[in-house]
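Re: the multi-chain job from yesterday

Posting the exact lines I submitted so nobody has to dig through the queue logs.
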Amino acid sequence: MNGLRAITLILIILLCGLFIYVAEDIPVFGDPNAPPIKSVELLTVKGDQIVSLLDKHIVPENLSEALVKRGFPPPSRVEKIAGIEGEWNAFIAKEEPHYAKEEKYYWIKEEGDRVKVSRYAFVVRWIEKGFEETAVRNMVTYGLADYRGYDTLGEVTVIFTAGVSVILLLRRRSRL
Amino acid sequence: MKEKQGERDVILETVVRVMIPFIQLFALYVIIHGAGGPGGGFQGGVVFASAFILYVIAFNLAGGRERFPESANTILSSLGLYIYAGIGLLAIIFSLGAAQYLNYGFIPFTSHFEENRALSMDFVEMGIGITVIAIIASIFFDLAQKDAEEKEEEEEGSKSWSGSSQKSSQNITTGSSSSS
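And the result, structure tokens for all chains:
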């Protein structure tokens, strides 16, 4: 019985150490100001030849400069959205080693004589890239268990804590 | 609880005996099927635990405890959490510290990065299911046990009270008889 208690204590200490290590290891979350919509408007750029350059799949220099000045990565490739006039998708090259090399990142729209640049929210990657990255068809499951794994680990810990507190409160051998 | 009163409902017991295996099979299907369709560990675990609750309602509490003993309950409730945390730790171990915690793709179940993620997700769902089964059953058994104990105490209390009153009345009668 004492041996079992010692093993349990060691396991608990190991789990606590693991959680402390993990808390240091949590990846940085996204933009805290990003609202839960499809795109976030960033800036508008004015220029004469931007539209013609975008139509030729060339990234205009003043657009890249304006984005870099605000701390966003410059797009590496521009593609016209099929079937819609005056709207483009801008892609950036990603540094992650195991996923697809490019990510749809900016959404450029022509408005009069200027061009409006918006950033796609995380939802777009969730919907469009989920099956490629995880090989699971169910959008809820790869969100719950993979993209938000930390969150689900916390939920299971909450359920476990609830059960342990019910045991502590109700399973008394002798009445107080 | 039924046996105490000496009444046994044959229809209820037969129907429950037939239904419980199907409920448990469906719960396991929901847990395993979580990656491909609607389902997951939380839902399947609750469905599985509901089979124990049905058993206790139809038969008795002690029988339910025999089927799912307290020691197994305690071990299983933490085992699921350890599976989840262990899968996350395997990612760090197999990548020699390069990958983040819970980055499933680096666990070499297969040769494909994406297939590794899918398989690890299945194991994680199983861990969630095991914990939810054990915890829901544990909470239900504890509450039912408490309820049964309180009822027993109430019955004993009323018996002893009535006994003492009878004794006192006997005392009174004996006293009156002795005085007379």
